[in-house]
């Protein structure tokens, strides 16, 4: 019984390692990063996130700037209220 459990654990570990290697070598299917991002004057980027057809910059002024991916135009500006 101990031999069967040991063999099962070894097969499980080898399978997990193989899946990790396959997954990490796969090409990412996410959208490419924009080559250049132009922010409004006086704003500084704090973080970045992206979706299918948009990307967003969170600024140090507690604002979220959502840009259109195709032409880089500002789609939406969201102010974060600190309470």
Give a quick set of tags describing it:
1 helix; Thrombin, subunit H; 4 strands; 83 residues; elongated; alpha+beta; 29% helix; four-stranded antiparallel β-sheet
Question: Helices, strands, pairings?
Answer:
Layout: H1 2-25, E1 45-50, E2 54-59, E3 63-68, E4 74-79
Antiparallel strand pairs: 1-2, 2-3, 3-4
Describe the protein.
It is a single chain. The chain is elongated, with a radius of gyration of 22 Å. A hairpin with a 3-residue loop joins strand 2 (54-59) and strand 3 (63-68). It is built from one helix and four strands, in the order αββββ. The protein has a four-stranded antiparallel β-sheet, with no helix packed on it. The mean pLDDT is 88. The protein has one domain: Thrombin, subunit H. It has 83 residues and is α+β, with helices and mostly antiparallel strands.
């Amino acid at each position: 019984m101990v031999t069967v459990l040991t063999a099962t654990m070894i097969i499980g570990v080898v399978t997990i390692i193989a899946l990790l290697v396959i997954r990490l070598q796969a090409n990412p299917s996410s959208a490419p990063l924009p080559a250049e991002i132009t922010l409004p004057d006086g704003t500084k980027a704090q973080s970045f996130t992206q979706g299918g057809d948009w990307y967003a910059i969170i600024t140090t002024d507690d604002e979220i700037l959502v840009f259109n991916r195709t032409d880089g135009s500002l789609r939406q500006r969201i102010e974060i209220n600190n309470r």
